[in-house]
Amino acid sequence: MHSETLALGGDLGGTSTRIVVVGPDGREHGRGITGGGNPTTDPAGAAAAFGDALRTALSGVDGARVKASVVGVAGGSALRTPAVATYFDRVWTEAGLTCDPGYVPDLEVAFAGGTPATDGAVLVAGTGAAAGSLIDHRLTRTADGHGWLLGDDGSGFWLGREAVRATLRTLDAGTPPGPLVAGVLRELDADGPGRDGQHDRVIQVVNSRPGVQLSALAPLVTAAYRAGDPQAQSIVERAAAALVATLALIRDPAESTPIVLAGSLAGDASPVGAELRTLLAARFAGAVLPARTGVGGAAWLALAALDPALATSETHTRLTS
After folding, report:
1. pLDDT tens digits, residue range 205-245?
2. Which residue, 8, 5, 4, is CA-closest to 296?
3. Contact at 8 Å (CB) between 184 and 223?
4. Staple 298 to which of 13, 29, 109, 225, CB 3.0 to 4.6 Å?
5. Do 88 and 144 reside in the same domain of the chain?
6. Which domain range does residue 62 map to?
C-alpha cells in the first residue's frame, strides 16, 4: 500500500506558501513555492497562493494518491469561518485532492521542523512573535501571537517600531543621529535639512503605511547593531528579553524537553537570535534547536498520519535537513 500512497505537507505563512509531496520513505515527489498570505486579513489572496503552490507541487502527481496531509497555517483560526473555508475548500478540490487537508497551527509544523520529539516548546520570531507548548505534537498552550497592534513583542514589527521611536526621541533631543537613526531617516525619505521637517516627515510616512510594514525597518536595527550603535544594541537586547518573557509564560524553567526556535529573527545570523540563545541557556533547561523547515516538519507529520511507523528519525532527517 505504501508504495502507492503519498503524503502532503504545507506551510502557509505571511511571507511564503510552501507545499511538498513525499513518498512513504520521505523522498520528494513534488514541491511548490509561492507568495504568502494570511487568511485572516486576505482570505482570497491566501487561498489563491495556496492553490498555486498545490498545482505546482502536484504537476506530475495524481492528487488521488495523496492519502494524508498536514498543512500549517498562520492565522488558521480564520478557516473556521464559512466564507474563508469556502475559498480554501475550492482550491483543494480543484487540485484533485480527496483527503482531508489536515490544517494545524503553524507553531506545530515549526516544532516538527526542528525535532522529532513529541513534547517541547516552540518560539517563533519573525514578522510576528509567538510561543507554544506541545504534547504529542499538539499545541496545548500558546503565548502572544496577538498581532502587531496588540502584541508580537520582540518581532520584526516590534524592532521596526522601536527604531522609529528611537529616531523620534533623537530628533526631540536634538542630538546627532547615529547609524540607526540615520538609516531610518534615509529609509523614510526624511534625511533632508531641518529637525522639525525630519520629525514631521517621519510621522507622516509611518502613518501613511499599514502599521505592520514597520517590520521592513528591522534590518536597519541589525545593521546598526553590527556597527556598534548603542540604540540598536538596546533594541536587540530588549527584543530578546521580550521573547524570553513570552516563552516563560508557558514554560517551566526546569522542563527538559527541547525548545525549537523558528523565524528569521531567531536564526543564527540574527543578533536577536544570538542574544536569545544566551538568555535561554541561562534561564531554561532543555536543548535549543533551530526549526530548519516548517514544510518539512509538516510533511513528516503527514507521514505519521499516513502510518505512525513511517515517522522515523531517518525520514525526519531527510525531510528537514
Report:
1. 999 988 888 999 999 999 999 999 999 999 999 999 999 99
2. 8
3. no
4. 109
5. no
6. 2-113+293-320
